[in-house]
Amino acid sequence: MPYESFAGGAAKRVFAILNVTLDVDQDAYVYEVQISMPVYLPESDVKYHVYSVLRRFNDFKRLYEGVGDVDGLKLPEYGLWSVLRADDAAFLAQRKLGLETMLKTIEENATASRSGAFAEFLASPQMKLNGDVSFQQLTTTEDATKSRANSADRSSNATLVADDEATSADP
């Protein structure tokens, strides 16, 4: 294939967990994951599109289970998933580093980085709404509202066209 030579030199996505907060309503920790995706423009060096998504701890567990059977992938030990020490600040800091390491490890593995589980995890709500990434069917309108409220996109340059604007452009 003519593009095989580009595969090895491709820039990788970069991940950082910016904040860890306790959602008291749901009694669950929420992690703000910043994703920097490389964007190639002919007239410039590699630049990044940076956005953040909010993920609950269970989302990380689902990701772990979704890519855990990929050959050659060595993820952090399962002790990271303990909930007994969830209120210990030192443990939360250790867990944050472990989760960042997990994301970087998945990104470095060619198979895992292209998995549906990883794409689902990294997708912003706009990506899901635009159909760029599939997501589970919600059962009720109330579930859809909760899902949108619990997941946020803090994208630096994402744009959406409102349905009103799209229909008003038609003659």
Automatic annotation (TrEMBL):
GO MF annotations in UniProt: phosphatidylinositol binding
Domain PX: 9-129
Compositionally biased residues, Acidic residues: 162-171
Annotated InterPro entries: PX_dom, PX_dom_sf
Disordered, as annotated region: 142-171
Comp. bias (Low complexity): 147-158
Protein name: PX domain-containing protein
UniProt organism field: Saprolegnia parasitica (strain CBS 223.65)
Lineage: Eukaryota, Sar, Stramenopiles, Oomycota, Saprolegniomycetes
